[in-house]
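Hi R.,

Here's the chain you asked about this morning:
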Amino acid sequence: MNHSTQTKKMEGPILISYDHIRLTDHDAFLFKEGNHFQLYNKLGSHVVERDDTRGVLFAVWAPNALTVSVIGPFNRWNKEAHKLGSRSDSSGIWEGFIPALDKGTVYKYHITSKYNNYQIEKKDPYGIFAEAPQQTSSIVWDLDYKWQDEKWMQGRAQEQALDKPMSVYEVHLGSWRRVTEENNRRLTYTELANYLVDYVKQMGFTHVEFMPVMDHPFYGSWGYQTLGYFAPASCFGTPQEMMFLIDSFHQAGIGVFLDWVPSHFPSDGHGLVYFDGTHLFEHNDPQKGFHPDWKCNIFNNDRNEVKEFLISSALFWFDKYHVDGLRVDAVASMLYLDYSRKEGEWSPNIYGGRDNIESIAFIKQLNEVVFKNFPGVHMIAEESTAWAKVSRPTYCGGLGFDMKWNMGWMHDTLEYFRKDPVHRKYHQNELTFSMLYAFTENFVLSFSHDEVVHGKGSLINKMPGDEWQQFANLRLLYSYMYAHPGKKLLFMGQEFAQRAEWNHEQSLDWHLVGHPFHQGVQKLLKDLNSLYCAEDALYKHDFDSEGFECIDASDWRQSILCFLRKAPALSELILIINNFTPTPHTHYRVGVSQKGTWELIFNSDDPCYGGGGFELPATVCSESHPYHERENSISVNIPPLATTYWKFQKSPFNERPAK
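And the predicted structure, written out as C-alpha cells:
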C-alpha cells in the first residue's frame, strides 16, 4: 500500500513534486467510478515544488459550488485572492497551487454555492491537521516521520492471527492521567508514549484501543462526533507526535487499535454538513440522513464519492499511522433503516424490508478493500443486534469484519453479577446462554467505557455485598471472563477497580492502587494477562468449539459452573471451576475423561489478590470414579466467590518414549 514517492532535493527538507500529487485524468476517472481509495494522496493540501517554486497544492470536492477559494491569515481571509479552478472532467473537484505557502499555514475553503447565493467557510475534509477547538481552521502539514517499528510490522500478521491471544486495554487519552499541578492538564501524545506504553506493557495487555482520536469539535463527545477523518486530535500534539506514540507501542510489542466512526458526523457549520450548499456528504432524506438520538448527520452511502471518502479514511490510518485495527462504531445504526426510529419515521427499502441496502454494501466493500490492502490487520464491529455473520467473509454472505464485540455476553454477565448470590441460582441461564452461540461469530468479550458512564456505575460498584464480597465478585468476574471463549477488552481504570464512574474531565483515581484490595485486583489482571498469553488452551481456539467443553452447567442450586478450555493439537487442557456464591465447598466432585494429575495454576481467592486463601492443594489426581458422564473424576475444594484454573499434567506412565 505504501507507494514510492517522486521527490526532488532542495535546500532544506525533501519536497514532493507537483506532478506526483496533482490529480491526473486517471485519478479523476477512478474517483467518478467509485474506486479511488487513496484520495488522501490527492485531495486536501500538500506542500510541493512546482517549477522550482515551493508552495501548497489544494484540491477539494465541491461539485455544486460556484466558486471555491482558499482563505487564511496569509491573505487576510480574502475570498477573492486565491480562487481554485474547477476541473473540466465533471468530477466536481476544485484545485490550485499557491506559491510561497508552507507547512503550518492556517486555511479554510470559502465556498459560494450555485444555489441561493449560499456562502460558507469550511474546514478541509481531507485535511491532515487542524487547529484545536474552539478554533476551526485546517493547517497545512506533512506526514514525514522515520518509523522504528519494522520488526513489529514484519511480524504483525502472524502476531495478530485469530489463534493468538488478544487482550485489549481501552483508553481515553484525555483522561487516563492528568497533570493536576498544571491546572488538570491533559497529557500529550509524547507524554503518553513515556507513561502509557510502559503501563500497558507492565500490565501484560497485548493491544491498546484509543477511543476516537480523530479531530472532533466537542471534547465531551469523546471523539464519537468526528469532523477530521484524516487528522488526529491536535489538543494532544502534532501528527508526528501521534505517530511517535503508536511507534512506541509497536517497539514495546503492543498493537494499536483506533475507534473509527463511519456512521455519522456532527452538524457543526465549518464541517461536512451542507458542504457546498447541498446535502453532499449526508443523505438528503432526513429519514436516512439525520440521527434522532445523536442529533447528527448520517453519511449518504449511496454516493461513490462518500464511500471513497470513508474507505480512504480507513486506509489512511493503516497506511500513514501503522495502526493495527479499527473498531468500527455503531454498526447496528448503519444496518437498519428503522434504527431508533418510530413507526412513520422511516421508509422501507425497495424490497419492503428494513435493511439499509446501501450501507450494507458499503460495509462489505470497506472490509474487502481493507483486508486486500492490509492483510494482518483487524476490523472489529461494535454491533449490538443478532445480525448474522457479522464477522464472516463477504464471500460467505457475511459483512466481512473479522471480529465483533459480544454485547449480549456483556449484558447478560453484568446482569447476573448484579444479583445477590442468594438469587443467582435462579439465573444460571444468564451465564450458560452465551455458550450456545459462542462460536457463531468471532467474539470480543468487552467491558468498555459504555458500561461505566451515565449513571451505570463502575464495575466494582455493580457488585453486591460488603467490601470483601464486592472485590471477590470482581475478581471472579475477570477470572471467568478470561476463561470464557473470546478475545478480551477492558476499559481503563477497571483493572484496579476504580470506584467512581468514568469522568472524561478527570484523571483516573490512581491513588487507589495504594490500597490493598485495589492493588490486588490490579495484580490479578496482570497475572491473568500473563497466564492467558502463556497457555495455548486459553486462546488458541477462541473462535471454534474445539477449544471448549462444558463439563457441568446444571449445578444451578449451588451456582457452580465447570468447563474445559482446550488446545487439542497440543494435548493441553485447563479445567475451569467457577463458584458464584460466598459458600465454599470441600470434596466437590468434577468429572474428567483423563487419568492423571491436575495442577492448580490460578486461584482468584489467593491472598495476594485480596482473597481469603481458602485452603487448596497444589495438585489433585483423578480417580476411576465415573461422574458427569465421564470415566474419571477429581475431588476438589472450591473457594467462595472464586474461579480456579487446573491444568492437566500428562501422566509419566502415558507418555510416549522419546524417538
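Residues 516-534 form the longest helix (19 residues).

Let me know if you need anything else.
M.
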